[in-house]
């Protein structure tokens, strides 16, 4: 063996002895301290992971709520899309009824007005727009513009006369019926 190799072997032996000395110097207390530090880091990392998981779950739930609300709003918009147009058409329908009530119309004119009225009513019905029922007074669907004393023919809270028909789109009131109510 050459001198250099002998020297390297000696150095390696010295390094091994130093490692053994360092390992012996590590006492149980030092090892416990290292283990406690590692355990506390692990607990801290677990707590942080739980916090992130909680935040993730909350954000995920909020996103689902936002999607659900958006879908509900979209369905509502589709369901009531005809509302504004119906409110604009209803006065024309009222005018057709008034025109049909005029005396002295020829049969041809009357028939033409009835056809227009029927087609308008059919179109509105296709969109879910219907007349408000006018049997008994309901403040949710009727506007009492006048009252008359109740009698045998018209008991209390019954509708005596309809001045203007009311309409609703599905369950949403577009226009209340203007009525005379027996009191």
- Uncertain stretches of 5 or more adjacent residues: none
Instruction: Work out the number of β strands.
Output: 6
Main pleated sheet: 3 strands, antiparallel
Distance between the termini: 129 Å
Q: Give helix and strand order, one letter per element, not per position.
A: HHHHEEEEEE
Q: Provide the spatial order of strands within the biggest beta sheet.
A: 1-4-5
β-strand amount: 15-25%
Q: Taking Cα atoms only, what radius of gyration do you get, to the nearest Å? A: 44 Å
Give a structural overview.
The chain has helices spanning 3-25, 28-79, 83-101, 107-126, and strands at 129-131, 142-148, 159-164, 167-169, 172-175, 177-182. It is α+β, with helices and mostly antiparallel strands and 183 residues long. The strands form two sheets. The chain has a three-stranded antiparallel β-sheet with strand order 1-4-5. The protein has a three-stranded mixed β-sheet with strand order 2-6-3, with no helix packed on it. Helix 3 runs antiparallel to helix 4. The longest helix is centred in the N-terminal third of the chain and has 52 residues, at 28-79. The radius of gyration is 44 Å and the shape is elongated. The termini are far apart. The mean pLDDT is 86.
Q: In terms of topology, how is this protein built?
A:
Blueprint: H1 3-25, H2 28-79, H3 83-101, H4 107-126, E1 129-131, E2 142-148, E3 159-164, E4 167-169, E5 172-175, E6 177-182
Parallel strand pairs: 2-6
Antiparallel strand pairs: 1-4, 3-6, 4-5
